[in-house]
Amino acid sequence: MAKIQTGDKVSVHYIGKLGDGSIFDSTVGEDPFVFTFGEDDLIDGFVNAILTMEIGDKKTVTVDVEEAYGEWHEDMLIEVPRSEMPEELTELAVGDELEVTDEEEEPMLVIVSELTDTTVTLDGNPPLAGEALTFELELVAVG
């Protein structure tokens, strides 16, 4: 079998689990996940696991924090006075996702992690930061 090359379309079924066994994402009952190898931005541990597989192979791998979404960083929490929030965001709830711009004017996804009467705390960490992830993988196609 030829190795997966940059530019190949790769199709994979997977079940993604957290350390406690709960499922955070899955393609079971759906079409496989398709990505372009070397072009799509995926976590290193996921890509590295697929590199050693052949079509039809199934395996389970655990991806450590560093090869997943990295460590969770407290300095990625931003507390904003409610008075500085845009008017259209008055009905916020913990868990809401918002897009903001960083210092370089690049868009960044943040999650509302805490609300008080006077402040909104936004978390800029990836939702799975600080988590080791386990994937049950099946390589479906490469082309």
How would you explain this protein's 3D organization?
- The protein is mainly β.
- It folds into two domains: 9-69 and 129-142, Roll (Chitinase A, domain 3); 74-123, Thrombin, subunit H (Beta Barrel), CATH 2.40.10.
- It is built from one helix and nine strands.
- It has one helix at residues 44-51; strands spanning 9-17, 23-26, 33-36, 58-63, 77-81, 97-101, 107-115, 119-123, 133-142.
- Strands 1, 2, 3, 4 and 9 form a five-stranded antiparallel sheet that branches. Strands 5-8-7-6 form a four-stranded antiparallel sheet, with no helix packed on it.
- The longest helix is centred in the N-terminal third of the chain and has 8 residues, at 44-51.
- The radius of gyration is 19 Å and the shape is elongated.
- It starts with 8 loop residues before the first strand and ends with a strand.
- The mean pLDDT is 93.
- Strand pairing plus helix content: what structural class? mainly beta
What is the CATH first-level class name of the largest domain? Alpha Beta
Radius of gyration: 19 Å
**Averaged pLDDT:** 93
Strand content: 35-45%
CATH fold category name of the largest domain? Chitinase A, domain 3
Strand count: 9
Oligomer: single chain
Uncertain regions: pLDDT < 50 for 5+ in a row? none
Shape: elongated
The first-to-last residue Cα distance is 12 Å
What sequence of helices (H) and strands (E) makes up the elements?
A: EEEHEEEEEE
The DSSP helix count reads 1
Helix content: under 10%
